[in-house]
Specification:
Layout (H helix, E strand, L loop, with lengths): L2 H24 L2 H39 L2
Helix pairs in contact: 1-2
Length: about 70
């Protein structure tokens, strides 16, 4: 997956934190909940990205062993 996905996930997390903070300050529970949802979504996406990167790394290791690299 890579660095661009990491950056997108971090940006979504920060956007969610901003929404949550704005909702808390203004008393807007819906905005606060939306921000929390954005953060949760970013967390899940990051875990998927991390898992995909780990699988790719292992596949590359196996390929290198099979090809003698």
């Amino acid at each position: 997956m890579g660095i661009s996905d990491d950056a997108k996930n971090k940006a979504e997390d920060l956007k969610g934190r901003g929404k949550e903070a704005a909702g808390s300050l203004s008393g807007d529970d819906q905005l606060k909940a939306e921000g929390q949802g954005d953060q949760a979504s970013a967390g899940v996406k990051q875990k998927v990205t991390d898992a995909a990167d780990a699988v790719k790394h292992k596949a590359d290791e196996v390929k290198d062993k099979l090809t003698g690299r």
